[in-house]
Predict the 3D structure of the following.
Amino acid sequence: MTKAWDDIDPIETKEWLDAFASLVKHEGPERARFIIGQLLDKATQKGIDTGVSAVSTPYMNTIPLSAQPDYPGDLALEERIDAINRWNAIAMVIRTKHDVGGVGGHLSSYASIATLYEVGLNHYFRGATPESPGDLIYFQGHSSEGNYARAFLEGRLTEKHLKNFRQEVDGPGLSSYPHPWLMPKFWQFATVSLGLGALQAMYQARFLKYLENRKLLSTADRKVWLFCGDGEMDEPESTAGLTMAAREELDNVVYVVNCNLQRLDGLVRSNSKIIQELEGVFRGAGWNVIKVLWDSQWDALFAKDKKGLLLKRLNECVDGDLQNAYVRGGTREFLSRDNEELKALLEGYTDDELIKLHRGGHDPIKINAAYAAAVKHKGQPTAILVQSVKGYGLGTGSAEGRNIAHNHLDMTEAELKTFRERFQLPLTDKQLMEFSFYKPDENSPEVKYLHAQRAKLGGYLPSRESPSNPLKVPDLSAFDAVLKGTGDRTASTTMVLGRILNVMLKDPNIAERIVPIFSDEVRTFGLEALFRQIGIYSHVGQLYIPEDKEQLVYYREAKDGQVLEEGITEAGCMASWIAAATSYSTHRFPMVPIFTYYSMFGFQRVGDFIWAAGDMRARGFLIGATAGRTTLEGEGLQHQDGQSLLAASAVPNCRAYDPAFGYEMAVIMQEGLRCMFKEEQDVFYYIMAMNEKYVQPEMPANAEKGILKGMYLYQKATEKSKLSVQLFGSGAILREVIAAADLLQKDFGVSADVWSVTSFNELHREGVAIEREAMLSPEKKSPLTYVETCLQNHEGPVIAATDYIRAYAEQIRPFTKRSYTVLGTDGYGRSDTRENLRRFFEVDRYYVAIASLQALAKEGAIPANKVTEAIKKYKIDPKKPNPMTV
């Protein structure tokens, strides 16, 4: 039986190949590509399955030897620098392990990616200059040891720093991974949570185009470089931005995937080929793809292979074969198998020579060819898929290329000596066994070359700038229309947000800095006026006539549009928000991002991005719209948010608020502008907004301080009684609490003060800080917490009700210093009306009233039968199922 790859007419085959070679020679590769495409199209029309995928190319280097540029640097010097960095990275990790113990570290990840970094740092990655902030490099999180080793050689880190790797508490230590919060002058991006760096880089590249097209900054010459591993590509965020990048023609991004074929425990695609798979993913998404598979020592062998048998063999094998052959040194057997022609091809090569056929990821010449092509490519983003070996240089007898590589944290004397010889390091046996750091003299050729190359490129990397560039922000009086309320008209706080945005967009000092971001449903939030007012950003403008052109607020896209409407991707929106929220550092140009989204799809859905944003000292606003578990009527379990504020409490630099009224929102947002963009504090704000319409009252006198600290007295009891309670309410439930106060006074003669609690989180933080101060200063009189100060002259038990789970309001229990009852929306949501949902979750006015009476009864202020009376009066079913369990 004839197989597809059997050649039944070699003469005819040669004629076709000669004709193709002539076409390429005389008419060029573009014409050849066109002819191939025409042939494939014609075959498809004839119903012939060619077996050729448009997204797959042979398992060889994309850039042929004939197109390979000359290397731009001194290879010998660069190899010595590379070797020194490798040693210092190893010494740092193992020395820490020996001296301290279980603080961890990695040897194999940097060993795999080192040369990829070195070529870039010596020739491509531009640092910050007075004229430009330089390129943006998203270094692979698990290879931070190499970045520290290079910074040590550059003189930016000291030996003391390296000795304190992963020991940051008591001195000048180094963080485990890229953490700008911990090393604010070194790291730019938090990338170690796998996948997050990739999506951030895509949207960062897009944000550069956004700044350029809006004529805010000149960014056309800046590149975004992203490094990640092939195992990391299984994270959905790693590929989530690929089609966006291609659609937006982001030729300013270079995505380098270091394919060492291993995850933490073993192979990525042992039974197939991860690089071929990724090539299909990237090409299918519309990317330019460059493969760097084999080093320069393969070139002569490929040139000798006139029939393509070697390439055919490499196409057929799987990654498990490649790993096994590398580790066991059976290159001859692996390549030839039982094929006599392949055996003949390998004749003249010794076994040692065959073993030295390495992967392209460790050859600076091949890497340089890929980088040079990538930075010149226009109209598409570029992915460079590089084949390397995990643990390269550590020795195949121990960890190099083996499944155990990731967990290999030590080296024997024999392995150390082998490493020294392999990389020709001038270390004595004593220095080797003591893991002494090696740094040549400042006048050595290596160090002088290192500094000279970085000087050519503008400065050292990684490095983070944070220049002072305060903005003039509007005073609170600018929001006067909001502070005065709506009179007899009703409005939701989401509608009020639109009015606040309108004020900000008319302020000449910050208008151009505002970056409204939406995942979708701008119309749902009632903010569609932004479409006409400032337009939706599109890198090509608007190529069509919108069907709603005749409407006042038609869907308007523009090249200089200001709104980023990302589509239904909260993760993509967060990546855009982070790019804008860190623009004050990465671009020396502060922007004011405001990402508005369904609150349920915020912290719960993209909490990892929000944590990374905090790490990167982001500044901006997150708006949790249609907030709470009972305000989004009809939507049900998946949409109703009862926990995001509690999640927000875990992020140290996130200031989270749940305003009930428009004036509260205005005060909070104005304070946010002041703190983040005038005072330049590294905080960000999470503010809830609701779609429930009601009359927005005027701000009470002197309420600003309490709004910001977390609570203020909204309403004193209408009549003074012997029976008193203090009612705490927030956001969507505050109006129920106000109504409960009326019921208590009218039906039971109980006086109720009503407090608007805008942030249980801020109250908790202040209270914990006071407690800590008291613990550490036991002989001093402890100051009162803000909660205690507020309640000083107000009697009675406290009852708190929110639209969130009880744990949110429970945060301040220790500071009330009295009976404290909490109502919340624990449990799964339901589809229904707001009224029914609040009854279901037991947070409506009637349950607030019953909880108040029960608290009084527990204190002996009223008999228990008064509570029973109220239950009957308000038609509460005591046998109603517990909302936490149904």
